[in-house]
What does this fold into?
Amino acid sequence: MSLVRCKDKRTGITYVYESESYWDKEKQQPRARRKLIGKIDEATGEIVPTDGRGRKRKKTAETDPSQAAETAADQAALLAQKDSQITRLTEENQKLREEKDSLLRELGGILERYSITEQ
It folds into this structure.
């Protein structure tokens, strides 16, 4: 196996692949399989691992079950907080709509009074 560096001319990013040679029995010639490892960091020259599609690898909670539980608990707490905020904002919105309707009724009454006296 060897490491192959290929530069994408469109983006200027240099990708690093792991190349494995094998013999193709049907075509009777050598072939190569490549697997994306990562891309080269321009500043440091180091290989930054990717997930195989050119994206940075995410640190998943799947590797550590305790982190998965913390993440799930954090998400549940965040959802509960957002639900309470949605409820509060919905109530505030209802009060503002009622206030708007009462102001429009008062304005309509004022306009009626002044339009009658001018005629």
Observations:
- DSSP finds one helix and four strands in the chain.
